[in-house]
């Protein structure tokens, strides 16, 4: 009966042992399958054509009512604004904008906000937004739509988009003459790029009511007037009234996207007006057709994921998404030559004004928020997309490697004192002699050091937590250093502590194996959660790190010396700060190929330091959680991975009790007794 009950000959045990022997092959097969699935999504058979799910959006596709007089008004306003800009080289002509909104019959208000710069030593910056409200004549102010245009001063280093404000005002004048609006229309002009929009949104929804003014970095103030609940928003950035194409920008804060119906609506209306538009739309002279459709689709997918992974919005529209407001930006780029559209002089802005009118009328007809189409998708091209149900299997296949290896590692953990002896690497002769002393062995199961591993995990998480807290402490802010050097110094110091930690703290027997299981489980769960919130970041992190996780082993007898050293070097290269530097170096090399390598490396180092500081600032002001994810998740995981790659363990002899004489060492005396406490 003992033979029948022997667990070593069970089918489950044989299956686990077989998988354990070939775990790397199985995991690499899953890795290749996940990457191959993602590449297959660029094929037409694996993606879908776009369509409008919400029938209420159809009114915007009817014949537009805007005429040539709106174009003349836009040209006149642009000429007036250019004269005002000569007197406001580094400021915003608030008085002129407010006067024009009042002239067009809008309910005009001014919004003031204050920024307390985190690294400015208490220095404050003040800003002002101008907005006008066109109340819905057919219903109470229960819902609203925002039409926004950022204003950039003449001294700005960014591209000139001065034509955005005149175009916005021209459309406001047209909208005031119509009585079919069922929602309040808000015409907003912001300054200081995304900072002004963030302050206005916080003031619109919360204001200073629940804000600790002494600790807040952005004090949004309070709005003198509000409209209804915001349903959608359209951000307008126009370089010139005569445009070449429209780039439709959709990426929002932390990789969020507007409803796919809104993107499809803009695309259809732009096509109706004869405007070339699309996601990442290129100028006509730079459009290449030499690539195959598969290459173009794959390039589009990777470009979108790269833009999403940073979590930085591509326009002011991206800040609306955190309030569950669907928004996007139409960025109209100027024509290379000032040849007017359709051969009609002085009517260049009419197609764009008609497109804005169509978008406004469609949004005005919505009975509820966007909900019927997808919020999680990847655009293959302007008329094809991939839904979350199609691209998530690629990430699941990559993460499955971690969970499979965690299970197999757990199943091979030492469960008894006899297994602990075998794990200690004793020669077979000593094991045979030790069997004679079996009656002296503790029959109880070997207790894994859960407490030690938990303390070690807590220490790594504490290092990540300090990366978020220390750079903003008053003591560090008083150090006479800039934001970038200070942030980089703190991150480097804490990364150095994580590097040294495995040399100082050595886990007891069984702790390294248990830490390996915990690492695999935390790693897999973290990637799944990150992938659900921001697929691009989770997928890129998985593609980059899963091969290293598969190769990682805590048992040195299972890994060749060359491979073990390679894993350690790869682990060092996977340090989050090193990865950031390599990414910035590649971008610098791509943008400035004419520079010598030494200057490129120095410029990349400076840019990487700036990126660390900007990531922290974006985290505390806008709520971008990329810096938080890197410090709180990726850095602790790297410390654990570095610990496992070193495989520094307390000798199993520390767990065993031997006589003091030299002749009774573990190497010479086989009759060792396991400690019994």
UniProtKB/TrEMBL annotation:
GO terms for biological process: attachment of GPI anchor to protein; GPI anchor biosynthetic process; rhabdomere membrane biogenesis. It comes from the Eukaryota. Pfam families: Gaa1. Keywords: Membrane, Transmembrane, Transmembrane helix. InterPro entries: Gaa1. GO terms for cellular component: GPI-anchor transamidase complex; nuclear membrane. The chain crosses the membrane at residues 453-472, 484-507, 519-552, 572-592, 625-646. This is Glycosylphosphatidylinositol anchor attachment 1 protein. It comes from Drosophila erecta.
């Amino acid at each position: 009966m003992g033979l029948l009950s022997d667990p070593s000959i069970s089918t489950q045990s044989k299956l686990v042992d077989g998988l354990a022997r070939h775990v790397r092959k199985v995991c690499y097969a899953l890795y290749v399958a996940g990457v191959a699935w993602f590449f297959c999504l660029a094929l037409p058979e694996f993606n879908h054509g776009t369509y409008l799910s919400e029938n209420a959006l159809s009114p915007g596709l009817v014949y537009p009512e805007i005429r040539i007089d709106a174009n003349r008004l836009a040209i006149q306003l642009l000429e007036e604004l250019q004269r005002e800009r000569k007197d406001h080289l580094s400021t915003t002509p608030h008085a002129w904008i407010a006067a024009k909104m009042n002239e067009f019959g809008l309910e005009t208000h001014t919004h003031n906000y204050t920024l307390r710069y985190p690294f400015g030593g208490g220095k404050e910056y003040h800003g002002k937004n101008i907005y006008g409200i066109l109340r819905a004549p057919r219903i109470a102010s229960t819902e609203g739509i925002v039409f926004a245009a950022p204003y950039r001063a003449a001294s700005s280093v960014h591209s000139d988009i001065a034509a955005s404000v005149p175009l916005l005002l021209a459309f406001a004048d047209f909208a005031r003459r119509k009585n079919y609006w069922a929602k309040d229309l808000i015409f907003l002009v912001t300054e200081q790029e995304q900072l002004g929009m963030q302050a206005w949104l916080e003031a619109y929804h919360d204001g200073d009511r629940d804000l600790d003014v002494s600790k807040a970095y952005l004090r949004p103030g309070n709005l003198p007037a509000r409209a209804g609940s915001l349903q959608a928003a359209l951000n307008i950035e126009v370089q010139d009234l005569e445009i070449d194409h429209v780039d439709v920008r959709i990426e929002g804060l932390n990789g969020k996207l507007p409803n796919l119906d809104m993107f499809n609506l803009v695309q259809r209306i732009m096509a109706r007006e004869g405007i070339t538009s699309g996601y990442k739309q290129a100028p006509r002279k730079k459009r290449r057709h030499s690539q195959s459709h598969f290459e173009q689709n794959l390039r589009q997918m990777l470009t979108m994921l790269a833009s999403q992974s940073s979590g930085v919005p591509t326009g002011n529209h991206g800040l609306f998404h955190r309030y569950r407001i669907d928004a996007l930006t139409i960025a109209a780029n100027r024509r290379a030559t000032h040849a007017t559209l359709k051969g009609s002089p002085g009517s260049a802005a009419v197609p764009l004004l008609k497109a804005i009118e169509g978008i406004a009328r469609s949004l005005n007809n919505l009975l509820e928020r966007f909900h019927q189409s997808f919020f999680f998708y990847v655009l293959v091209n302007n008329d094809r997309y991939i839904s979350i149900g199609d691209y998530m299997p690629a990430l699941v296949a990559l993460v499955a490697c971690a969970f499979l290896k965690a299970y197999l590692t757990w199943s091979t953990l030492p469960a008894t004192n006899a297994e602990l002896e075998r794990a200690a690497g004793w020669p077979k002769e000593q094991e045979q002699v030790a069997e004679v002393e079996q009656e002296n062995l503790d029959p109880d199961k070997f207790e894994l050091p859960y407490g030690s591993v938990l303390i070690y995990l807590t220490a790594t998480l504490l290092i990540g937590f300090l990366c978020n807290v220390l750079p903003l402490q008053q003591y560090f802010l008083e150090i006479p250093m800039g934001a970038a050097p200070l942030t980089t110094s703190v991150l480097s110091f804490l990364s150095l502590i994580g590097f040294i930690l495995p040399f100082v703290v050595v886990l007891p027997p069984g702790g390294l194996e248990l830490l390996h299981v915990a690492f695999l489980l935390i790693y897999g769960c973290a990637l799944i959660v990150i992938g659900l919130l921001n697929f691009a970041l989770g997928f890129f992190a998985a593609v980059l790190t899963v091969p290293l996780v598969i190769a990682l082993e805590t048992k040195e007898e299972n890994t060749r010396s060359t491979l073990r050293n390679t894993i350690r070097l790869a682990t060092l290269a996977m340090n989050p700060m090193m990865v950031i530097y390599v990414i910035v170096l590649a971008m610098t090399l791509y943008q400035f190929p004419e520079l010598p390598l030494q200057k490129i490396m120095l410029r990349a180092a400076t840019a990487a330091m700036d990126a660390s500081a900007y990531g922290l600032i974006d985290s505390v002001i806008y709520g971008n959680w990329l810096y938080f994810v890197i410090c709180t998740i990726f850095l602790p995981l790297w410390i654990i991975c570095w610990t496992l790659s070193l495989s520094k363990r307390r000798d199993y002899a520390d767990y065993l009790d031997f006589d003091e004489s030299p002749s009774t060492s573990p190497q010479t005396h086989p009759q060792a007794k396991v400690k019994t406490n």
